[in-house]
Amino acid sequence: MIYTVTFNPAIDYVVRLDSVTAGGTNRAKSEQIYFGGKGINVSLVLAELGIKSVALGFAAGFTGRAIEDGVRSRGVNTDFIHLESGCSRINVKIKAGEETEINGQGPMISESAAAQLYGKLGGLKDGDVLVLAGSIPESLPEDTYEKILRHISGRKIRTVVDATGRLLLNVLKYKPFLVKPNDRELGGMFGAELKTIDEIIEHAYKLKEMGAVNVLVSMAGDGAVLIDESGALHRCGACRGEVRNSVGAGDSMVAGFIAGVSDGDYEYALKLGTACGGATAFSDGLAKRDEIYGLLKRL
After folding, report:
1. What is the pLDDT of residue 156?
2. Number of Cβ atoms within 10 Å of the Cβ of 128
3. Among 128, 251, 284, 290, which one carries the catalytic annotation?
């Protein structure tokens, strides 16, 4: 089974306007509501590909109940820990030429609630996949990802970590099955601005040398590169299209890679991941099945 963890799930309220006037009343031309968070996004795209997963995480208040109901309605099993106080966050995304985001803080996660998550993770079995994606809420220790990977170490569980900076670098000693920075994040981890594909590949190999089994680097319109477990280099271009959405493309790529690599075909996994990321970027929400496979044929 595939498990995804979303520490701080959210309702994304997307508002589209021609323009925004500060201090005045602004009326939306259209609006959409999405249920998300990076791990949940992975689960939702996996569902589009016909693959079951369980979404783990923390939910609070009426917004938490709405998120859980919304995710379940899309075919994803949930096993959230329900917090006693607070409300799961609402993120407001204003699209009026430029995109402006106002992201909620989310509820406090107590030590006892965190302990419940470790208890659930203790039930994972050999062959399962665990996806850790996104930042750590302020109410949890900064080394939470390290503690989780240490907690499940010694078992044959494939771990996927989609994080940035020290959060990612500090877990490499546990040899995660996949890490997926973008090119800018990859450079930031080494204090460098990566300007060429050769520089990106060089630094991707550095992550592998530090412990990552597979390193997948997304490069927006320039496609993606993959260093697989054998050290082989794979490259994939990107389909062209109108970018409508900057949220969830990386999560979609992770979902596609997980779905495609089940039989060990890394070339196909890279292409399917790239197709999923592109399908989300060209959509108002997360990628849909027909859009994914349409792009896959073009790749």
Report:
1. 93
2. 18
3. 251
